Amino acid sequence: MAKPRILVAQAIFPETVERLAQHFEVQANQDDVRWSPAELARQLADKDGALTTGAQRIDAALLAACPRLRVVANMAVGYNNFDVAAMTAAGVQGTNTPDVLTDTTADFGFALLMAAARRITEGERYLRAGQWKDWRYDLLAGSEVHGSTLGIIGMGRIGQGIARRAAHGFGMEVLYHNRTRLPPALEAECKARHVGKDVLLANADHVVLVLPYTPDNHHTIGAQELARMKPTATLVNIARGGIVDEAALAAALREGRLAAAGLDVFEGEPAVHPDLLTLPNVVLTPHIASATVATRRAMANLAADNLIAFFDGRGPLTPVNQLPGADEFLYQNGL
Ligand code: DGY
């Protein structure tokens, strides 16, 4: 029987491609060519499955051009690049990579918080520029992290990981806001208190965003929300760029209405809002929260495992949609 045909849409670990090749006829974009949506559709037109990263949009127009396609495995926990309704309507299974990146991403959220609140990258630029001449009582004085109040918006697995680090490691008071409240035992373990968004914004010394991007979450943090935050506060976004109104954030940082920010994700990435690039009090990183070698390997392997399990008839391991006739799954694959 002919092997299913798979497209690997961006370069990944060569050993993952080799593993896939034991099961499938694989075409892998190991040269990492950035395809336009039309080119992606052309490459996928004769494929049964795909391994994507968050950078390829799978929508109704692409699905109409790719009638053979049955499954798309995203090598990311976020899957806002999928039009899930269109995929389900077209009978295309989507999968993502939850769990394997939770702690790595939570570590990075904390690193960004520390870097922004304690002005680490600003200090490094200052030193490298030869500006460090002597000790000064207020040289690059930032805001306290330990013992302060942390607000987490989006309390999935990564949010919980950040809460544990904050409460247990840094003695912080943790407030969280989430669509659904955590079970009491989990709240107790994370030492986190569920509050409304406005209460969180007004009381937190630092706010970390870890909610999935959906049209409803577009600009969850805009001018109004920034105005509710303390002027001494830090804002960290490791979720998706569209959650923050970058122009409003840049204005707040420039005008001293917010002390600092740490951003790993951007609305038009890889483009960054030009105003942010001019500001000293924002730490900017290129969407690397899950980027350790071990975690990226685990993500690639889970995406490959999803494709293998799907075509074996075992069903996807971490589905994001339920196709008609498939076993019901408990939706638990968000951030
Ligand atoms: C994720 O897994 O969603 C990360 O943001 C990497 O894209």
From TrEMBL:
Keyword field: NAD, Oxidoreductase
Keyword NAD assigned: yes
GO terms for cellular component: cytosol
Gene3D superfamilies named among the record's database cross-references: NAD(P)-binding Rossmann-like Domain
Record Pfam families: 2-Hacid_dh (PF00389), 2-Hacid_dh_C (PF02826)
PROSITE patterns (UniProt xref): D_2_HYDROXYACID_DH_1
SUPFAM superfamilies assigned: Formate/glycerate dehydrogenase catalytic domain-like, NAD(P)-binding Rossmann-fold domains
Family of this protein: Belongs to the D-isomer specific 2-hydroxyacid dehydrogenase family.
PANTHER family recorded: 2-HYDROXYACID DEHYDROGENASE-RELATED, GLYOXYLATE_HYDROXYPYRUVATE REDUCTASE B
Name of this protein: Gluconate 2-dehydrogenase
Lineage: Bacteria, Pseudomonadati, Pseudomonadota, Betaproteobacteria, Burkholderiales
